[in-house]
């Protein structure tokens, strides 16, 4: 029988007010319905916000080290349930179990890191310009935070957003993605089991135009943290800016790897292949472009094609699979559309380029790992995020040319270079327009204790994750205590 999952509002598991539901299916076998979930409306969001508001004062007053105890317990529960959770994520997200276990580990790391913040969350003290006066800063929660998730890393991203929000003393309304809602149910259950007070974290399932819009337009949600596509992020930002709410956006990317003439080519091929094709390219930091120095272009390309053609595409529950299915039919059509338009633009398919069908492939949406040669960075396939197993190759004359191509992208999330030259490597760190830069490594692999986020169209100002998450999820107050027993002020001019 299909399991029926619920929203979590005010500490209770409840159906949507209107009683509507939607189904979630397994991307490795779309005939398998995983469960039904509440198709929530504005009313459900309003209830969740009311509960979050009424829980706020108590949670804000709870000392951060006490909040931290709950996060430490959540980290331990995540560890105990790691295998079982990896299975859940793999089934609803279509990623391999080892990749999903890595995702749970990232959530564990974030729980422990943010719990540690409960005993840091530093403000500063400094000397006042006046006598007998104390000057300091301290961090306070923002209020009710709305967190909107994408489908691709439902456990890691729940942890990366919710744990910092909680440790800072905010209460939360969390919206799951409609393709990966079950993982968020387990995430919330862990916090429930860890002893999080009722109303502090509320979960609302449903779709963007209904639940997402209701969150971004709700007058009592002080901060919205949105992770998803750049197009939706713009809409979210508009809604928030219009009503004066804070907004943190973590958006898409068209991440590039530069391969220099002195690179270790085998290492570079390995880095590019796993960056482009693992999790079927459905990661914000996937490698969408490789920009290759002309002196190694032919040899690199033949090694790259060779390795790509050896990848095994298949369902997530087959432990020998390298490239897993796409999340939905809509995503399949989007990816095939990009490939078709690239060909019309005069780009050449070097390998792949088609949907895989027959046998297990008929139970999901699979695209053969695809490499497209492109003669200019202005073409759509070299500029836009595909979010599928599609890699664009561009040739560069030298380092300057390569950086011109790399930085011509409207996005700026992550970038990498393969080189043995330390001078080139350090120049790259200065020159690349990307929020996360790597030397001799793939374009993904961010660590939870380091800031993460993008420049240009990949983000907007804030950096989530790492110590900067504390800045995103808190307000800084500047505090003066005058113990001179007289009115003194730096703005008075005294003769
Ligand atoms: P998406 O933008 O389609 O959806 C993301 C979320 O927004 C979903 O929960 C969806 O229901 C919701 N949504 C849709 N319309 C909305 C609206 N009008 N108002 C509010 N919410 C709305 O993205 P997706 O397809 O789920 O995820 C893929 C995208 O996410 C890619 O572009 C990827 O690069 C990006 N991403 C970025 C990061 C990062 O940290 N930078 C991480 C993961 C994914």
Looking at this protein, list some descriptive labels.
495 residues; alpha/beta; Aldehyde Dehydrogenase, Chain A, domain 1; Aldehyde Dehydrogenase, Chain A, domain 2; 2 domains; globular; binds nicotinamide-adenine-dinucleotide
End-to-end Cα distance: 84 Å
Overall residue-averaged pLDDT value:
97
Q: Reading side by side through the largest sheet, how are the strands ordered?
A: 15-18-19-14-13-21-22
- CATH topology title of the largest domain: Aldehyde Dehydrogenase, Chain A, domain 1
Bound molecules: nicotinamide-adenine-dinucleotide
Indicate the structural class. alpha/beta
Q: Given this structure, which CATH class of the largest domain is correct?
A: Alpha Beta
Low-confidence stretches: none
CATH superfamily of the largest domain: Aldehyde Dehydrogenase, Chain A, domain 1
Proportion in β-strands: 15-25%
- What's the CATH architecture name of the largest domain? 3-Layer(aba) Sandwich
User: What is the domain tally?
Assistant: 2
Specify Rg, calculated over alpha carbons: 24 Å
Number of strands: 24
From the spread of the alpha carbons, the general shape counts as: globular
Main sheet attributes: strand count, strand direction, barrel closure: 7 strands, mixed
Helical content stands at 25-40%
